[in-house]
Amino acid sequence: MQRPVDDLHGRLEAAQAQGGEAAKERQRKQGKLTARERLDLLLDPGTFSEIGLFVETRSSDFGMAERRIPGDGVVTGSGLVGGQLVFTVSQDFGTLGGSLGEMHAAKIVKTQELAMKAGAPMVQILDSGGARIQEGVLSLHGYAQIFQRNTMASGVIPQISVILGPCAGGAVYSPAITDFVFMVEGLSKMFITGPDVIKAVTGEEVTFEELGGAAVHSGTSGNAHFVATDERECFATVRKLLSFLPANNLDDPPLAEQSDWPPDENPALDEIVPTGANQPYDVRDLIQNIFDYGDFLEVQPAFAANIVTGFARLAGRPVGVVGNQPAYLAGVLDINSSDKLARFVRFCDAFNLPIVNFVDVPGYLPGVQQEYGGVIRHGAKVLFAYSEATVPKVAIIVRKSYGGAYIAMSGFGLGYDRVMAYPTAEIAVMGPDGAANIIFRREIEAASDPEATRKEKIEEYREKFATPYTAAGQGLVDAVIDPKLTRPELIRALEMTSRKRETRPEKKHGNIPL
Question: For residue 73, how many other CB atoms are within 10 A of its CB?
Answer without folding.
Answer: 28
